[in-house]
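Supplementary Methods. Inverse-folding protocol.

Structures were first reduced to a discrete structure-token string of length 113. This string, shown here, constituted the complete conditioning input.
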């Protein structure tokens, strides 16, 4: 488990979307392939958000869960950076480049993408 408090976060305590980058890449290694939504949910679970943050929703008409939305943005950027690959729609796995970054044990943030 990753303590969400150690991640970069906004004023309300919710990790920012880029704080999900490292946990997303780490979780991606635990299975050969992931369905995107399941990977987002696994990452939110891994960072051990308290219930009030895990259930926090946007005030927009769609009322999306904030944490799932932010994890989705991280997944998208990791794919764009080539650290995750998608063999078909909404199926993801870690790339060789992603494994190298994890093995190098460097901090994953916007500067490393």
């Amino acid at each position: 488990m990753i303590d969400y408090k150690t991640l970069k976060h906004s004023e309300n305590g919710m990790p920012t979307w880029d704080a999900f980058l490292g946990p997303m890449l780490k979780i991606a290694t635990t299975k050969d392939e992931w369905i995107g939504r399941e990977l987002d949910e696994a990452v939110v679970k891994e960072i051990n958000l308290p219930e009030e943050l895990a259930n926090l929703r946007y005030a927009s008409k769609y009322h999306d869960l904030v944490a799932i939305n932010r994890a989705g943005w991280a997944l998208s950027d990791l794919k764009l950076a080539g650290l995750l690959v998608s063999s078909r729609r909404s199926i993801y796995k870690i790339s060789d480049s992603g494994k190298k970054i994890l093995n190098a044990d460097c901090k994953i943030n916007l500067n490393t993408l």
